[in-house]
Structure formats: C-alpha cells, structure tokens
Automatic annotation (TrEMBL):
Residues 597-674 form the Lipoyl-binding domain. This is 3-methylcrotonyl-CoA carboxylase alpha subunit. Its EC number is 6.4.1.4. InterPro entries: ATP-grasp (IPR011761), BC-like_N (IPR005481), Biotin_BS (IPR001882), Biotin_carboxylase_complex (IPR050856), Biotin_carboxylation_dom (IPR011764), Biotin_COase_C (IPR005482), Biotin_lipoyl (IPR000089), CPAse_ATP-bd (IPR005479). It comes from Nitrospirillum iridis.
Length: 678
C-alpha cells in the first residue's frame, strides 16, 4: 500500500522530525494540535493541521476518536504515533486498523505482549532471554511483596509494571524502608498509569544501560542496528545517550543483538523497537552478563545516535515497513561508522532539584547544524514550555569519527547553546561533557550520583566582567528607551523627556544592584556612568574602576570592550531578570529595584511554597507536629512526578494550608513551620 498522506499523532520535536522525513519522501503531512499548540512549530511545518482538543493531553493528544477523525477528514492513509501519547497503545493500533488506516508501528499483539513489564518478563523468560533476578508475579499483597524483596535481597528496585519514564520506580535499601517505598511507587503508578501493580528486581550496584535497536518487516526479516549506551541517567531517566556503547566487546554486542532479535521474533514484531538491557560489567563488580529489562515498541527518543552511526533514517524505514515493504538492508550490510552522542535539553532547574520549568523561551540559540551536529527541536524563540507536556526543549546530537572527537563536538555544541527566560539544564549537560570520567567513558547508571559535586557546583559570585556587562547592557537599554520616549513626546526638548543623567552631566553615575539569579546570591553593586565621549566608567563591587565601550549588534548581542578586552555576550532581559551568554557560560542575574522595599526571602523563612503548580497527593504532618530538617511534609504531584516538600530545619508545624486532592498554583504557600530558633 502507498502512503501519500501521513498524520502525525504527536507534537514537539518528534512530530517535527517525522514531518521532515515524510516531506523528503514526498509524503503530504497532517499535524494535530491542542489549544496550547495552535502556534507550535510542528503545526507550522505540516502541510495541514487539525485541532483535536484542549491543552491537557487526555483532552487532545490522547484522544483516539479525535485523532482518527482528523485522519478521516484529511484523507490520511497512515498515522505515525511518535513516542509517548498513543504510541504504545494497542487499542489505538487496533482502532487504526478498524478504520482502514496504517498504524506506523508494530501489531497490537506485539504492543500488548510488551505492554506490561511483568508480562514481558514472563514472556522473555520462556524465550530464554536472561532476566534480572526478581519477582514479576501476579500477587500484589504487600506482605508477599516484602517477603519476595527479602528473598531477592536488599537493595531492591520496585517498578510499576505499567511503568515508563522512571515513574513509579523506587529503591528500597532495607526492609524498614520497603513499605514506605512500596506505597510511594504504587501511588505514583496509579496516578501516572491508572494501574498500581508493581514488580521487584534486585537493584544492581553499578550497571550500564545498553539497549539494542531492532527492526523487523512483515516478511520475516529482522535485524539489529547495534546498541546505544544510555547509562548517564538522573532519577532513572536518560540524560545522555551514545552509540556505539564504549568498550563493548564485539562478542557481547553480537550476543545482545541476537537476544534482542530473538525477543522481537518471539512476539511477531514488525517495525522499529528497542530491547533494553542492563549490563553488569566486571569492571564495576558485576558478573559481566546482560539482563532483559523491557522492550519499547516504538521509535525511541534517542534514535538519532543510531541514525548517525548507521547512516540510516529510521523514520524512513518505519514508513517503508508500514507500507508493506521489506527492510532496506540486511544484517551484513549494516555497519557502525564513528561515534554519536545525544543530550536531552530540558527546561528544568538543576539548582532546584531539577524542577521542571514553565514559561517563555525568551531567548534561544542552537549550534549550527551540519554533518557533525544535529538539533531536533519543536520550539522556537518566544515559544512557551507549558505545564501540559514534557519540558524537553531539544535534543543535541553530535557525530565524529571516534568518541574523543565526538565528545569535543558535544562540548562545542553545548557552548553554543543559549536558553534564556527559564532555567535549563545546559550547564549541567556541559559539566557532564567536560567531566574527565565522561571522556574516559567510565559509565554506569550511577554516574551522575557519583559525580554530583562536580556536576552541580555551588553558585559562584558573578564575575566582574559579568557585572560590568550587565550594567552596560542595562544602561544602553535605558538610554534607548529614553530616546524612544523623547521621540514620542510632543516636546522632545523637554528636560523630562531626557531622563538620563549622562546627558546632563557625565560625572553622575547610576548605581545598579544585581544578585545572582540562583538562590543565595549576595547583592552586588555596580556604578556606571556614560561619559560625554561615549565611553562608560564602571566601578565594580571590589572598588576597581574600568573604562568601557559597549553597543548592541544587529543580532542583539552585547558587544563590549572592557579595559582593552573585547567581550561579546548573548543578551536577554525580561523585566528585572537578565540572561548573559558567553560560549560555555550562562549568567542569570536579577536587577534589584532600589524602590522595592526589602527582598523576599528566597528560602521563604519557614513558609514552604509550591515550586510549581500541581496537586497535593499526601499531607504527611499536621499542625502541632514537631519536624526535623529534611523531613517530608507534603507531597505535590506535578508534571506526573512526585515532589516531596521537606522541612528546611527543625521546628513545629503551625499551619497546613491544603488538603489531599487540592490543586495549588505556583508559589502557593503550602505549610508554615515555626523554626526552633524563631
Ligand atoms: P522506565 O520504563 O520507567 O524507563 P526501566 O525499567 O526502563 O524504567 O528502567 C529505567 C532505568 O532504571 C534503567 O535504565 C536503569 O538505570 C535503572 N534500573 C532499572 N532496573 C534496574 C535494576 N534492576 N538495577 C539497577 N538499576 C535499574
């Protein structure tokens, strides 16, 4: 069957990426969108777009009827589900078939077979694929689960059977901790998947996550497109992915490839799939073996690294196979070329426990794409990251002839990436890329945990250069505003229209006070005066004085010469918040308004506020309770994850403002704790 119109039942970077390949193949594309995405990039890129509902995913991207209706209205013959949303929904695959549409994915039976982690493990056990020691039975009684955990031996990992994206996954290090962790895993699983069944596995100490890309067609052919190492994770979620896996012996690769192909064949697989394994390397105290974890029956987020090293377009393969074609290549024709690395750029704040951020991307610059750099994104400058969807901004993917060269490319690519308006994990990714252990490929799933101190350095005091640049930028902007204001008034010569002191007397400096945009920064005072000759005099907090010149260039970058050195920074300002970008360096500063009476205490002085909008799912204390520093007080569910609000210090709970089930806005005061010192 020919596909000449393809509907993409997804949004963001993956929708854009699929549209690109479809277009290259001469296929007409149909986007679907929610109210929140009417102006989104994927809508702009597609040939046609259909609104399918309100912003929450369950009212739009998860609505099968709306998606099928959009396909019928636009004459699409096929639906590509991307990843997430309806991609692993067997019912949707069936509904497509019932409507005479091609579902670009595996048969519903294969999705079902791998749908639950427990069922998948049982199936793989019979197919002879090695499993992590554990319990994946039907029995869900907490007593039985606890005794299974004891039999397996602590530490154990409790996983949501319906799980994905690290949700509903909790480590229990001892029997004492087991029940609390079980309850938390079940709550999270119920909230995220509407299914609270769990399985238990031995928690391996320092495994690597190595997964195999498989591909099968409807004619009995199945190949593997080698492996990806996705060991660098945070909270069991991938952060960095690469291909091939460093230091993977050739024999082991072939063995894992064969096991993955066997797994796919065991369930009559067709299309793109990924078989995830944990590798327990001898170097880190393991047995050198690999164990099946789960199979993802869709295109994976990190597929671009495989595309880079194989020179293949996996979406093209998917469309060919979906249309009934045979696999473009046989196993013998596939080979690994060079090395590719992907990092996931998220709107999240590493300084605040990686809290997802929402807001407008007021400033966005990516490295230039080319043979060595690929940027997959679904957003542009000015777009919003909303509470409704995944806070991913982009994937940066680099390629070079070998791993050290690829790591250098990655460092360069990150240095050229500028995200302003909301906090992003760029500096954190850059710190990983710069880490000697990363260069040495000393990888396992505890990498981030182990190197935490290096990867999350404490906030540094803004440098003199940064403060000088910030002051210069603010003065230049004020000057431009004043001139624009003067041009607007009836009497441009009125002294009130020309508000800038520099015009009257170049000796009067303006005092600008900044503090680091990250918490805990001390106010820093800079004096700056615009001289009659066009230069600036700048006095830094340490008392040193510099002469400077500054202007904004055509791209809006602030170009300055300070004390004889030329500096250029990306500049983005929203009200009192400033973002300054230099290669590999991002400063966030807050300009303190001198008229503001007192600053709000960042720590909230015992008034604990919601770090983002969400729903209260547990209240762990009541008024009058004594609490210790770090004790969990209230649990907020936001963006499908649980966030426990903890006591900042020892004290007594005074007021709990919300109850379980309450929806709370960003910044809502949740609970008041009277500190012991108070
Ligand atoms: P999800 O489907 O939620 O992403 P996975 O089962 O794929 O969950 O596991 C995610 C990650 O959790 C793995 O990549 C690995 O780092 C870690 N993990 C899973 N199982 C184990 C285990 N038994 N021991 C140690 N780490 C594990």
């Amino acid at each position: 069957m020919m596909i000449d119109t393809l509907l993409i039942a997804n949004r963001g970077e993956i929708a854009c990426r699929i549209i690109r390949t479809a277009r290259r193949l001469g296929i007409r594309t149909v986007a679907v969108y929610s109210d929140a995405d009417a102006g989104a990039l994927h809508v702009a890129l597609a040939d046609e777009a259909v609104r399918i509902g309100a912003a929450p995913a369950r009212d739009s991207y998860l609505r099968m009827d709306a998606v099928l209706d959009a396909a019928a209205r636009t004459g699409a013959q096929a639906i590509h589900p991307g990843y997430g949303f309806l991609s692993e929904n067997a019912g949707f695959a069936e509904a497509c078939a019932a409507s005479g549409l091609i579902f670009v994915g595996p048969p519903a039976s294969a999705i079902r077979a791998m749908g639950g982690k427990s069922e998948a493990k049982a199936l793989m056990e019979t197919a002879g694929v090695p499993l992590v020691p554990g319990y994946h039975g039907e029995e869900q009684n907490s007593g039985v689960l606890a005794s299974e955990a004891a039999r397996i031996g602590y530490p154990v990992l409790i996983k949501a059977s319906a799980g994905g994206g690290g949700k509903g996954m909790k480590v229990a290090t001892s029997a004492e901790e087991f029940h609390e962790q079980l309850a938390s895993a079940k709550r999270e699983a119920q909230a995220a998947f509407g299914d609270d069944r769990v399985l238990i596995e031995k928690y391996l100490a320092r495994p690597r996550h190595v997964e195999i890309q498989v591909f099968a067609d409807g004619h009995g052919n199945c190949v593997y497109l080698f492996e990806r190492d996705c060991s660098i994770q945070r909270r069991h979620q991938k952060v960095v992915e690469e291909a091939p896996a460093p230091n993977l012996p050739k024999g082991l690769r072939e063995e894992m490839g064969a096991a993955a192909v066997a797994a796919a064949k065991a369930i009559g697989y067709v299309g793109a799939g990924t078989v995830e394994f944990l590798l327990d390397p001898v170097e880190t105290g393991g047995d050198g073996r690999f164990y099946f974890m789960e199979m993802n029956t869709r295109l994976q987020v990190e597929h671009p690294v495989t595309e880079y090293i194989t020179g293949q377009d996996l979406v093209e393969w998917q469309l060919r196979v979906a249309a009934g074609g045979v696999l473009p290549l046989t196993q013998d024709q596939l080979a690994v070329h060079g090395h590719a690395i992907e990092v996931r750029l998220y709107a999240e704040d590493p300084d605040k426990g990686f809290l997802p951020q929402t807001g407008t991307l007021s400033h966005l610059r990516f490295p230039e794409a080319g043979p060595h750099v690929r940027v997959d994104t679904g957003v542009r400058q000015g777009d919003a990251i909303s509470i409704h969807y995944d806070p991913m901004i982009a994937k940066l993917i680099v390629w070079d002839v070998d791993r050290p060269a690829a790591v250098r490319r990655l460092r360069q690519a990150l240095a050229a990436t500028e995200v302003g308006g909301l906090a992003a994990n760029v500096p954190f990714l850059a710190a990983i890329a710069a880490h000697p252990a990363f260069l040495e490929a000393d990888l396992d799933t505890r990498f981030i945990e182990r190197h935490q101190a290096d990867l999350l350095p404490p906030p540094a005091v803004p440098s003199g250069d940064t403060l000088a640049l910030a002051a210069l930028g603010v003065l230049l902007e004020r000057q431009a505003e004043t001139m624009a204001g003067a041009a607007r008034t009836n009497d441009p010569w009125s002294p009130w229209a020309s508000g800038a002191s520099w015009r009257l007397n170049d000796a009067v400096p303006e005092i600008l006070t900044f503090r680091d945009g990250r918490e805990g920064g001390e106010p820093q005072e800079v004096r700056a005066a615009h001289r009659r000759d066009g230069d600036f005099d700048v006095t830094l907090p340490d008392g040193s004085e510099v002469r400077a010149q500054a202007r904004f260039d055509a791209e809006g970058r602030l170009v300055a010469e300070i004390g004889g050195r030329r500096l250029a920074v990306g500049w983005s300002r929203r009200g009192m918040e400033l973002d300054l970008f230099r290669p590999g360096h991002h400063d966030r500063l807050i300009l303190i308004d001198p008229l503001d009476v007192g600053e709000v205490d960042a720590a909230g002085a015992g008034h604990l506020v919601a770090p983002m909008p969400g729903k209260i799912i547990a209240v762990l204390v009541a008024a009058g309770n004594r609490v210790e520093k770090g004790q969990g007080l209230i649990v907020l569910e936001a963006m499908k994850m649980e966030h426990t609000i903890k006591a900042q210090g020892p004290g007594t709970v005074q007021t709990v403002r919300y109850a379980v089930g309450d929806q709370v806005p960003d910044g809502a005061e949740l609970i008041i704790v009277a500190g012991d010192e108070a």
